[in-house]
Amino acid sequence: VQLVESGGGLVQPGGSLRLSCGASGFTFHSFAMSWYRQAPGKEREWVATVTPAQDTTAYADSVKGRFTISRDDAAMSVYLQMNSLQPDDTAVYYCNTLISLSNYWGQGTQVTVSS
């Protein structure tokens, strides 16, 4: 299993970014995909999840209405569109999937929201 995130960067408050996660090594379309984030000095926290076939999405209260998770099974990719970004959104963002009770993570991509 391999997960590779991209799309992070520096953005001003109120700005937008779109994160991407390319997956390989498993039957992507069969598994839910999630995004997590970890801010400096804080524990990793769940951000959003999309179920197989994009049947259901779920969001942490802190990002609901601002972030959108989506997936493209043909491209074996999951995305996180982040709008109205705030300094509290600054973190390393990780792609995640749970397969047979094992968590798999990407290397993370840094998102910094600052003026």
Question: Please, could you describe this protein's structure?
Answer:
There is one protein chain. The chain is an all-beta fold. 0% of the residues lie in helices and 53% in strands. It has no helices and eleven strands. Strands 2, 4, 5, 6, 9, 10 and 11 form a seven-stranded mixed beta sheet that branches. A four-stranded antiparallel beta sheet has the order 1-3-8-7, with no helix packed on it. Strand 9 (91-99) and strand 10 form a beta hairpin. It is globular and about 40 Å long. The N and C termini lie far apart (37 Å). The model has no long low-confidence stretch (mean pLDDT 97).
Quick recap:
The protein has 115 residues and is mostly beta strands. It has strands at 2-6, 9-11, 17-24, 33-38, 45-50, 57-59, 67-72, 77-82, 91-99, 102-105, 109-113. The strands form 2 sheets. Strands 2, 4, 5, 6, 9, 10 and 11 form a 7-stranded mixed β-sheet that branches.
What does the secondary structure layout of this molecule look like, with pairings?
Blueprint: E1 2-6, E2 9-11, E3 17-24, E4 33-38, E5 45-50, E6 57-59, E7 67-72, E8 77-82, E9 91-99, E10 102-105, E11 109-113
